[in-house]
Specification:
Largest sheet: 5 strands, mixed
Strand content: 15-25%
Bound molecules: ligand D41
Strand order of the largest sheet: 2-13-10-3-9
Number of helices: 25
Number of strands: 24
Length: 674
């Protein structure tokens, strides 16, 4: 018994030491022991836990090496949505931001802003229960993300336990996981040596590393973390008055905060900060794409609230797009799903803002003429964030005498059909339709894409083969593919072939908007597909709708209406749809707009007391989105009163009048379900 106690004591000692050295290294940036000492203690703990698994604790640093691979990530709904940031690309926009704030606050007092570099990483949410990390999720769309707990635990800069003896019951810390520039370069060097694909930029590398089902892979990647806000809290937590104090507290609790943060006076202070960070940018060991300004005072933040998912009190001041010089080696025309010809410049490879670029879009013929791009030209290429790199302009002084002007091809480079470019339109198209292999491939790829039928593993190369080998002519042929035929394709084994069949099978259960989007009807993007689904509720009434009915729907104009109507008039399209459904493609009944979107329509709701996990403005906005009228006085017409901490007289009034009351926690539970 005594011996076991000894071991337990040693294990705890080791965990504490490792935690302390981690903190010194990642948060204070001031290690006190050499790496070798750290590694020795780490191995001792690992051995101890291997021999006595009962000594393992949920916050043990030994989990940082990875765990059993997952089959898939589960979805996590954020209790408080993770907002996005509005962007400013110029000083004017930054001044306008400051002015809006003063106008809304009806004050001309100078505002104090908390400034931070804007990391080019991946936003995540970390949930601590009684001071122990229990869940980590990606931001996703801000409402739901993916559970990446096991992977996040391998990131050493993220504390597995708070440095606090009396931690809040629940604490959500949000921040950015990013990859160090040096680590990113080393990773790409390795990939090059192994003949593997390189990551385009540190952001993709961070995202790709966190979205690994096998956390051992994540553990091997040089990821780090900076926190920037607190989300949900429960118990023993008093919200602080300013953003910078929150970061101070998080730092004391063991979270890395960005060392370059600062609090400045007024918007001029922000612009000075922008200049300073611009100069430091290339010397920082992480990629940033701008700086963020946040109103420092929490009470002002609350007054300002947010609008369409972004706070009014914060803005990202972006750096101008990265640019580089290179030469145009050739210009090719790619044929897209709708036959549109896109000229693409093949470039002498050049590194722009950390990513190697060898192709850049020229958009269309008009653009080529306007910019007068010729083969052999020296050009400026630009990459802004995630968008496709483009040829920005030509350096005419460097044009070689033999530079070749570009002409629109007369026939499709893929199928030989005629090319038409209607007068006054920018886009030239191949008229081959589904006769053109390029269009066929692109429509199949679109059908399989993530936002459409989401058929995992069906990428460009596989689609190319399927179409070229004649295995797939139209999208419905996908569901008739057989194992043997698939396994015989290049770069496919039995295993990947059967994975694809499983993915195909899985894709059969879809949703109406996904299916509509997947069909690839011109002008029907994701949003339109949703609107159509909401309006019609099912496929049949949509198929029979005339153009007038279609035009009456939100965001659908005469052009889209005509495309949709014509699409469902084509016997060929009807045949494909019938065949898809015959193969088992189906979707759950879709609730029409009225019932799904505005469940609180006609209800009058009052909020009283202080809400802990959202501001009153956030709560109001949410309720209004759901259709409710939010008012300030309780009367017999009130349907519901939501009660936070220290409620006022409205609470008594509600009790008096016998009006339905729910407490904040219940309100959150309900909204989580809605
Ligand atoms: O460094 C960043 N990428 C960063 C992102 C930052 N320093 N601060 C941020 N602050 C916010 C708010 C103001 C909404 C709390 C953010 C983000 N949001 C953000 N990251 C991804 C989406 C939004």
């Amino acid at each position: 018994m005594e011996a076991v106690n000894q071991l337990q004591k040693r294990a705890q000692e080791l965990r504490q030491l490792i935690q302390r050295y981690n903190y010194e290294y990642y948060v204070l940036d001031a290690p006190t022991v050499p790496d070798s000492e750290y590694d020795r203690l780490f191995r001792e703990l690992q051995n101890l836990e291997a021999q006595h698994p009962e000594l393992k604790t949920p916050d043990s640093p030994s989990q940082r090496v990875g765990a059993e691979p997952l089959v898939e990530f589960s979805q996590v709904r954020h209790q408080i949505p993770m907002l996005s940031l509005n962007n400013a690309f110029s000083q004017e926009e930054v001044f306008a931001f400051d002015k809006r704030i003063h106008d809304r606050l009806k004050s001309n007092e100078m505002i104090e802003y908390a400034c931070e570099p804007k990391l080019d990483g991946l936003a995540i949410s970390l949930l601590y229960e009684d001071g122990i990390l229990i869940k980590a999720a990606t931001r996703g769309d801000g409402i739901t993300g993916e559970d990446v707990t096991t992977n996040v635990k391998t990131v050493r800069a993220i504390p597995l336990r708070l440095i606090e003896n009396n931690p809040p019951k629940l604490l959500e810390v949000r921040g950015e996981v990013y990859m160090l520039k040096s680590g990113f370069e080393a990773l790409n060097r390795q990939a090059r040596q192994k003949g593997e694909k390189e990551f385009a930029n540190p952001r993709n590398a961070a995202a790709g590393s966190l979205r690994q089902l096998d956390s051992h892979i994540t553990a091997s990647r040089p990821l780090s973390f900076f926190c920037y806000e607190i989300g949900v809290t429960k118990g023993n937590f008093r919200l602080l008055n300013t953003h910078h104090e929150i970061l101070d507290l998080l730092k004391a609790w063991g979270f890395p905060v960005i060392p370059e943060r600062a609090v400045v006076f007024g918007i001029e202070g922000c612009l000075d900060y922008y200049q300073k960070i611009t100069q430091m940018r290339d010397h920082l060991n992480y990629e940033i794409d701008g700086v963020v300004y946040k109103v420092d005072r929490k009470d002002l933040q609350e007054k300002l609230g947010f609008i369409s998912r972004a706070p009014r009190w914060a803005i990202a001041h972006k750096f101008p797009a990265h640019e580089e010089l290179t030469t145009v080696e050739d210009i090719e025309f790619q044929v897209g799903r709708t036959g549109a010809l896109t000229p693409v410049a093949r470039l002498k490879p050049v590194s722009v803002g950390g990513a190697t670029i060898s192709n850049a879009t020229l958009h269309n013929m008009d653009e080529i003429e306007r910019k007068d791009v010729r083969i052999g030209d020296t050009v400026i290429v630009r990459r802004a964030g995630d968008v496709i790199p483009e040829v920005f302009s030509v350096i005419k002084e460097r044009r070689p005498p033999q530079a070749k002007p570009i002409q629109l091809p007369k026939s499709c480079p893929v199928c030989g059909s005629d090319i038409v470019k209607p007068e006054g339109e920018a886009i030239a198209r191949c008229i081959g339709g589904l006769f053109c292999p390029a269009q066929r491939k692109a429509s199949i790829e679109h059908f399989a894409s993530r936002k459409a039928m989401d058929i995992e593993g069906l990428g460009t190369q596989l689609v190319d083969q399927l179409v070229e080998k004649g295995l797939v002519h139209h999208v419905d042929d996908l569901y008739r593919l057989k194992l043997d035929a698939l396994a015989n394709l290049a770069r496919m084994g039995k295993k990947s072939a059967s994975n694809l069949l499983v993915a195909l099978e899985k894709s059969k259960l879809t949703t109406l908007p996904r299916f509509l989007y997947a069909l690839g009807i011109r002008e029907v993007g994701e949003a339109t597909a949703h609107n159509l689904a909401k309006h019609f509720g099912d496929l049949a009434p949509l198929m029979h709708a005339d153009e007038n009915t279609l035009q009456s729907i939100r965001d659908i104009g005469p052009v889209a209406a005509q495309y949709i109507h014509t699409f469902f008039q084509q016997p060929h399209n009807l045949e494909v749809i019938r065949s898809l459904m015959h193969s088992g493609v189906h979707w759950p009944a879709y609730q029409k707009e009225e019932t799904i979107l505005r469940p609180l329509e006609g209800k009058t709701i009052v909020i009283t007391g202080t809400l802990k996990n959202m501001t009153r403005e956030q709560a109001k906005e949410k309720l209004r989105e759901l259709g409710a009228d939010v008012t300030n006085t309780v009367s017999k017409n009130t349907d519901l009163v939501i009660v936070g901490e220290n409620p006022g007289s409205k609470y008594n009034k509600a009790l008096e009048l016998g009006i339905k009351i729910i407490y904040e926690e219940e309100f959150e539970m309900k909204s989580v379900k809605l």
